Amino acid sequence: MHILKYQAVIHAVELGSFTKAGEVLHCTQSAISRMVKDLEEDWGLCILQRSKQGVRLTSEGQALYPTLQRICNEQHALETQVGSLRQFESGSIRIGTISSIATHVLPSFLAEFKEKFPNIKFELLLGEYEEIAHWLEAGSIDFGFLRLPVGDNVSTRIFMEDPLLVVLPNNHPLCLLPEIPYKALNDYPFILLSRTGSAEVPALLQQKQLSLSIHYRTWDDYAVMAMVEQGLGISILPSLILRRCSNAITCRPLEGGASRTLVLATRKGSIPSLAVQKFLEILQIV
């Protein structure tokens, strides 16, 4: 029970809210709040500060947080080792992933793995690249998906090349072209997908020295597609995001091509559990 309370604190801090922590631990927001309050009463300390913006560590919480992380990570390692020794009768795999991979890539691999090892549990933490890198460094996940370039503290294997595509309203004149010249982007209102840790498009535009007429900026890719559909402008999005898109839009490659390189990353020097190794075999990147 104490481990569960520690996990409640860890996930609340990582995800920024009791509600999201509850989703990961399969319990209610009030249950997470109760567990944290129980710890604070037991210890006589305030470890989390609550506000409308979410939750964050107090100074006392910051002092305790590394120890809580270490205990939870060691508990996870113990459970995984026991699961391995019992030939996959139990165990868990924690994955840090961006939304597009979680939505369009992982489900088929998860289903295939579950057929072979039905008792292995999965925990998918969705975040941006910087968050995933932080989770790796902290040992909160077994592996994660990042884009190149990455830091020196992780080991990587190429997972896939994801093309960047120009997104156009269906009646747009650029739809007549099989490929879109970069300079043509300067002639139309542009909708920029830009968020912390996700800078593929801004980096590409800077590399090509384009001076676009950016009319809209948003961090939500579905908002970009809806705005393009309404004729508010054109945009560039990774092709993974555009899979099974229901919006009335047209996609074209950039002249000469452009893509983001997605990699599977592990903490440098870490040894994956047997369960993780088996899942990597399913992903065909071992």
Automatic annotation (TrEMBL):
Pfam families in UniProt: HTH_1, LysR_substrate
InterPro entries reported in the protein's UniProt record: HTH-type_LysR_regulators, LysR_HTH_N, LysR_subst-bd, WH-like_DNA-bd_sf, WH_DNA-bd_sf
Gene3D superfamilies: 3.40.190.290, Winged helix-like DNA-binding domain superfamily/Winged helix DNA-binding domain
HTH lysR-type domain: residues covered: 1-58
GO terms of molecular function: DNA binding; DNA-binding transcription factor activity
Keyword DNA-binding in record: yes
Record keywords, A-Z: DNA-binding, Transcription, Transcription regulation
Entry's Gene Ontology cellular component terms: cytosol
Family designation: Belongs to the LysR transcriptional regulatory family.
Name the record gives this protein: HTH-type transcriptional activator CmpR
Source organism of this protein record: bioreactor metagenome
Protein's gene: cmpR_16
